[in-house]
Specification:
Blueprint: E1 8-13, E2 18-23, H1 28-31, E3 49-53, E4 58-62, E5 73-76, E6 104-107, E7 113-115, E8 119-127, E9 132-138, E10 144-152, E11 157-163, E12 168-177, E13 184-186, E14 190-193, E15 201-203, E16 206-208
Parallel strand pairs: 2-3, 7-14
Antiparallel strand pairs: 1-2, 3-4, 4-5, 6-8, 8-11, 9-10, 9-12, 12-13, 12-14, 15-16
């Protein structure tokens, strides 16, 4: 008999190596003869391996250049029909190690009312690997009142000041980690009060109003 293309089946196929199975009623000596696999030139490549089940043996044969077949290794000289099962298994294993890092910002309390025209003192304690923070003043609508300040953390503390905005209520101080904006702290609301300069002035024995007129006594 001669080579039957449908009896040559791939078991494993990769970019560089193929494993084949070929079952035939021919003798092994006929299968390894030169030119037997000439019709499979487009399929077989040098370096492939073939499991051959012939009428008189079962063998593992190497594929050489020009579709030549080497003598290989005979596994059994008196075989009965066998069934080959092709199985592909791939295992992916991933190990991830994680550790908790504590990072937080503790804002010092603020007074309930700040006088307009003075500076707003901002102090906070920083725990964890935070090198600098962004300090902002926000109004009752949570809008940033410029300027925002980037402040370095020194020995675990933040110290800075912000200018006072217009007289009003509902203001808050907010401090965020400059690298991780998820680490954030916001103060309670406070008010900006009008400037409490003296409304009265003294001129000798008289008390004057803000416009300079003397206060009438009843």
């Amino acid at each position: 008999m001669s080579f039957i293309a449908t009896d040559l089946m791939p078991l494993i196929q990769t970019a560089r190596f193929n494993l084949w199975h070929y079952r035939s009623a021919d003798l092994k000596t006929a299968i390894v003869a030169p030119g037997y696999f000439a019709a499979a030139t487009g399929r077989l490549r040098a370096g492939d391996v073939m499991i051959v089940q012939s009428s008189d043996s079962m063998a593992i044969l190497p594929v050489r250049s020009n579709v030549g077949i080497g003598p290989g290794v005979t596994l059994d000289g008196a075989v009965t029909p066998i069934a080959l099962t092709r199985t592909v298994a791939q295992t992916l294993r991933m190990v991830q190690a994680a550790g908790a890092v504590v990072a937080t910002i503790l804002l010092a309390p603020l007074v309930a009312g700040v006088i307009m025209g003075t500076a707003i003192p901002v102090q906070a304690q920083v725990v964890g690997p935070i090198s600098q923070v962004v300090v902002t003043l926000r109004n009752a609508q949570n809008q940033v009142m410029p300027p925002a300040k980037t402040v370095l953390v020194e020995q675990g503390y933040v110290n800075t000041t912000l200018p006072t905005p217009a007289v009003g209520s509902g203001y808050r101080i907010q401090i965020e980690d400059d690298e991780d904006r998820g680490i954030i702290v916001t103060s309670r609301t406070f008010n900006i009060l009008p400037d409490l300069h003296l409304m009265l002035a003294e001129n000798g024995p008289k008390l004057l109003q803000e416009d300079g007129a003397a206060i009438a006594q009843n």
